[in-house]
């Protein structure tokens, strides 16, 4: 092989190394968000910390890599950096497992200090690998540059290759690997690929140096065998873990209460991400939960009395935020073969619902899609549109705006209603009041119910002008019907609260949902209200 052929071979392999480093950089960032999201959630605050620190580490890497390349412009040095970056990338999730397990307990116990400390500790684990990955591009430019006159084209080519790799690293973890093999194994996959490329580059230039680092994949494999295979988060006290999965959108757990003699023994809960909220509930012998979902049954009875239940049966129901189907199960039990369109963005949640929550009703049409998109493209109208997609801190702003509620109104029958579940605290109702104002910009009447012993408020907007007293009148005039509906109406009547609107109306152009939610959470912890949950 001639010297020119050898140099060309080295250059092409350098391109491969830059591509692999670009893939791994974005894969680490996205996988880190999922690793932390399973315990701390995926709110804007969490994302901001992850992205901000990753950018800080990359900034340090670019600076260090450029100076390092000038002092030691050797291929062997670059490939050693790549191998160490791969090793530390694979090591990070394995070392993080015990830290995250402790953090999960702190989050469950609402120990803010321990939770924040664990969050910071895990992020620090990514400092070394991401900084080393940041060193790769400036180092590769230094090695690939034949002369100063070609500096621009060389740098542009290598940054294009790195960015192309980052594109692959953006989609592959989220769409393929995390749902397929889980977060930690996704880290290990990309770390292994990068390590293989790094060791191959070392072998091209110094076989002895490559052999000296072969202990790294062995150590990662042994640690993976020891650490992986155990649940990341245990079930809450008094419950057993039935199922867990990393999906494209959430860390999903299904748990079952194991408390013989207690009324909720055998109840199954759907938990997502940090697990602070219950997203669906199921019990084989009990339809009503006594909680938030029951109030969805009462929504159409704000219409003038006597309201005929057959209007709901024929009009049907749309649910944005189907989860594992608690509301769909209740409506089916009360109204029979009522047509229901259940919209859920996460196919992994749908799978859990079908496997563990008997979400197999033949009248339920499951639509796996973003709620606003699916509703906008529906050709049906409904007696009830239920929105159970606002779980603080996860409030999708596009489902809170005036324009969205106009779309909802356009999909309602002449006496249809929209019912939404909104989070709050005992002292902070800003989100509730802003959504009340937004609903009143579209619907003539809005009614408020505070769910007892919870941080949830149910808002009902009606297409026709209505009064809150209609609820009690309909309960009295209902006649012979399903007992569960009587119970739900009685709960709703006792939970009626004043309807108060703020002067904020969310629009597609201006919807400061995240600002309100973030402030609500911070004030909640600073005020000491978190102690009420213990």
Describe what you observe in this structure.
- The protein is an alpha/beta fold and 534 residues long.
- The chain folds into two domains: 3-227, Up-down Bundle (Growth Hormone, Chain: A); 308-533, Rossmann fold (3-Layer(aba) Sandwich).
- It is 55% helix and 13% strand.
- It is built from 19 helices and twelve strands.
- α2 packs across α5 (127-144).
- Residues 530-534 have low confidence and may be disordered.
Chain-wise SSE layout:
Blueprint: H1 3-40, H2 44-71, H3 75-108, H4 112-125, H5 127-144, H6 151-181, H7 183-205, H8 207-212, H9 215-227, E1 239-246, E2 251-257, E3 268-272, E4 278-282, H10 294-298, H11 310-315, E5 317-320, H12 326-335, E6 340-344, H13 347-356, E7 364-368, H14 371-376, E8 382-387, H15 402-410, E9 412-423, H16 430-440, E10 445-450, E11 456-462, H17 470-477, H18 483-494, E12 496-497, H19 513-526
Parallel strand pairs: 5-6, 5-8, 6-7, 8-9
Antiparallel strand pairs: 1-2, 2-3, 3-4, 9-11, 10-11, 10-12
Helix pairs in contact: 1-2, 1-3, 1-5, 1-6, 1-7, 2-5, 3-4, 3-5, 3-7, 3-9, 5-6, 6-7
CATH architecture of the largest domain: 3-Layer(aba) Sandwich
Structural class: alpha/beta
- Considering the protein shown, what is the CATH homologous superfamily of the largest domain? Vaccinia Virus protein VP39
What share of the residues lie within helices? Answer: 55-70%
Q: Rg, please? A: 27 Å
Mean pLDDT: 87
- Termini separation comes to 72 Å
Regions with little confidence, pLDDT below 50 for 5+ residues: 530-534
| DSSP E strands, number | 12
Main sheet strand line-up: 7-6-5-8-9-11-10-12
- Briefly, what CATH class of the largest domain? Alpha Beta
């Amino acid at each position: 092989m001639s010297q020119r052929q050898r140099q060309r071979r080295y250059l092409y392999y350098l391109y491969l190394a830059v591509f692999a480093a670009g893939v791994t950089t974005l894969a680490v960032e996205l996988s880190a968000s999922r690793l932390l999201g399973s315990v701390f959630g995926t709110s804007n605050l969490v994302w901001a910390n992850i992205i901000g620190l990753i950018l800080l580490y990359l900034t340090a890497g670019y600076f260090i890599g450029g100076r390092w390349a000038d002092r030691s412009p050797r291929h062997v040095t670059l490939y050693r950096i790549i191998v160490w970056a791969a090793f530390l990338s694979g090591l990070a999730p394995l070392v993080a497992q015990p830290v995250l397990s402790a953090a999960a307990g702190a989050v469950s116990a609402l120990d803010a200090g321990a939770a924040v400390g664990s969050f910071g500790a895990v992020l620090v684990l990514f400092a070394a690998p991401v900084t080393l990955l940041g060193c790769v591009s400036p180092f590769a430019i230094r090695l690939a540059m034949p002369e100063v006159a070609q500096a621009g084209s060389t740098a542009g080519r290598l940054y294009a290759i790195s960015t192309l790799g980052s594109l692959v690293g953006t989609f592959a973890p989220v769409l393929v690997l995390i749902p397929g093999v889980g977060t930690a194994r996704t880290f290990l996959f990309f770390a292994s690929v990068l390590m293989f490329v790094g060791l191959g580059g070392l072998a091209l230039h110094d076989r002895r140096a490559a052999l000296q680092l072969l202990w790294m994949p062995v150590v990662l494999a042994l640690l993976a065998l020891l650490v992986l295979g155990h649940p990341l988060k245990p079930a809450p006290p008094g419950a057993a873990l039935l199922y867990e999965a990393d999906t494209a959108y959430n860390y999903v757990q299904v748990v079952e209460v194991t408390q013989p003699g207690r009324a909720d023994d055998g109840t199954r809960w759907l938990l997502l991400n940090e697990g602070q909220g219950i997203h669906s509930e199921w019990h084989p012998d009990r339809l009503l939960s006594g909680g938030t979902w029951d109030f969805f049954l009462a929504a159409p009875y704000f219409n003038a009395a006597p309201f005929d239940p057959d209007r709901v049966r024929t009009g049907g129901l749309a649910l944005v935020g189907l989860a594992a189907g608690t509301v769909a199960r209740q409506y089916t039990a009360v109204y029979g073969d009522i047509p229901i369109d259940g919209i859920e963005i996460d196919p992994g949640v749908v799978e859990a619902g079908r496997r563990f929550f008997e979400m197999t009703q033949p009248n339920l049409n499951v639509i796996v899609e973003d709620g606003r998109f699916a509703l906008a493209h529906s050709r049906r109208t409904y007696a009830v549109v239920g929105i159970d997609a606002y779980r603080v801190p996860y409030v999708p702003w596009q489902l809170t705006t005036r324009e969205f509620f106009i779309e909802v109104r356009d999909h309602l029958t002449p006496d249809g209603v929209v019912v939404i579940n909104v989070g709050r605290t005992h002292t902070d109702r800003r989100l509730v009041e802003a959504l009340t104002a937004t609903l009143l910009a579209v619907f003539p009447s809005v009614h408020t119910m505070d769910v007892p012993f919870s941080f949830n408020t149910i808002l009902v907007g009606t297409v026709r002008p209505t009064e809150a007293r209609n609820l009690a009148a309909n309960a009295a005039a209902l006649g012979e019907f399903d007992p569960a509906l009587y119970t739900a109406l009685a709960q709703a009547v006792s939970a009626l609260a004043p309807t108060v609107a703020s002067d904020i109306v969310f629009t597609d152009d201006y919807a400061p949902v995240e600002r309100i939610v973030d402030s609500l959470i911070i004030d909640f912890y600073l005020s000491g209200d978190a102690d009420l949950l213990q």
